[in-house]
Amino acid sequence: MNIAIVGLGIIGGSYCKALKAHTAHKVIGLNRTPATAQKALEAGAIDTIGTPESLAEADITILCMYPQACIDFLEQNGQYIRKGSIVTDAAGIKRAICPQMVELSKRFGYIFVGSHPMAGKEKNGFDVSDADLFMGASFIITPCGAPQQAVGTVASLALDIGFGSVKITDPEEHDRMIAFTSQLPHVLACAYVLSPSCPNHRGFSAGSYRDVSRVANINARLWSELFLENREPLIEELQELNHNLNALFDAIKNNDKETLADLLEKGHSVKQRLGE
Amino acid sequence: MNIAIVGLGIIGGSYCKALKAHTAHKVIGLNRTPATAQKALEAGAIDTIGTPESLAEADITILCMYPQACIDFLEQNGQYIRKGSIVTDAAGIKRAICPQMVELSKRFGYIFVGSHPMAGKEKNGFDVSDADLFMGASFIITPCGAPQQAVGTVASLALDIGFGSVKITDPEEHDRMIAFTSQLPHVLACAYVLSPSCPNHRGFSAGSYRDVSRVANINARLWSELFLENREPLIEELQELNHNLNALFDAIKNNDKETLADLLEKGHSVKQRLGE
């Protein structure tokens, strides 16, 4: 197949490299900044630098841009995409874009399958992209009414390039779960490192500091868009966390060892039951 | 030297194994449950099973028990410890025990040097102890008035068995920093996994879920003691976190992209400046 990757940041770049490493598909790379596309070509991550017009050759087009930028790109360039070909995205939110993405696919005659690769790093850009980024990770698909066959094609490709599992869901469940599994830890990490104690952590810190603070190294522009486009589920998770933190806070403040140990034991048993 | 390890859990067991792996010192192991000491002996982690009376042979005694248990142990057995020998601990809090530990050392004539190895796992017991647990970790010493030479002996031993650095501080700074670097992430992890979304995370989760939730697999009895014995600094850090979470919450709730991006950018720049 010919596969077009639009946006050669960490996710798009990793798609290119993984496709070259694990498949025989031809990879067409498109990027707003030409120098990055040139770098990707020289690195052997793509076979050719594409233009919107060359999307006519692609069997699958994967949009690896900010959520709103995916819609803007398709509004402008959807006309070039071959009818019947597949378009998917990599956006971390789904309710906010899927309805428009479906509408655009109907307007231009291609098939839209929503997807979200559950992988990333606390750094950005093509330079940190990695052929192994997706190894063992979960690949989430929101079919949004796409034919079963197209969903299967996207799922197979994901497994071919290293994803460990595929989860099929709808935009609502996706966004609700992502608010907990991904967005909340990012909010937490930022709140955590804003403590005046943070700059003095060296010599006093180990794994638990490192793990909680890791994703504070955030792309502020991307994540503020993701948080605001998923406001309701994220607010619910923040309220739930606040409730649980308050219960722990009260037990500590009241020197109430029994309640505190009970709460910690509850957390322990949830985590132990889940295994991971 | 003869080194006695009292308490063969994950920390004590790891001390034994690291001493055997990296030094030629003789290791004497003491444990309340005899079967564990026997297991340590059979595993080659200790050279001999000790009794309180055999502490008379030890040049250094390392207490690897719950904070209050260290004091209880010394109250009962301090008489057996050789005068002029060194006693250190591994407790995660210092203000709550150091004054009594110093007093006991004066009563019985040995030298007390407080210490806290900044390493651990989200599991407990001798079975998960590991000769490499301390590799590259920070070793915190609170001298509490001990002679420079004794502090140097403890520091050298720590570096010999794999610690990457030694931090000398006082109980106040230790407890204030540990509240942030270690205790707060443990409180957070427990509060996080208590969300009703947690049991459904599979397929939707990746590194950020894994990292924040990891230490929820907590030893509830140990950590409730540690939290309550370090109440004031921990409450301060919880209030600071609450303040920062509220600021982020408000920005998200008010759809205030500018304030939200500013807060995330602040977190990002703290983390980026620190490098880790």
Number of spatially distinct domains of chain A: 2
- Please identify the oligomeric state: homodimer
Low-confidence stretches of chain A: none
CATH architecture of the largest domain in chain A: 3-Layer(aba) Sandwich
State the fourth-level CATH superfamily of the largest domain in chain A: NAD(P)-binding Rossmann-like Domain
Physical arrangement of strands within the biggest beta sheet of chain A: 3-2-1-4-5-6-7-8
Question: Structural class of the helix and strand makeup of chain A?
Answer: alpha/beta
Helix content of chain A: 40-55%
Strand percentage of chain A: 5-15%
Apparent shape of chain A: elongated
Counted by DSSP, the helix tally of chain A is 10
Q: Provide the CATH top-level class of the largest domain in chain A.
A: Alpha Beta
Mean pLDDT over the residues of chain A: 97
Total count of strands of chain A: 8
- Biggest beta sheet attributes of chain A: 8 strands, mixed
Radius of gyration of chain A: 21 Å
Q: What is the CA–CA distance across the termini of chain A?
A: 37 Å
Greatest chain-chain contact: A-B, 93 and 93 residues
What do we call the CATH topology of the largest domain in chain A? Rossmann fold
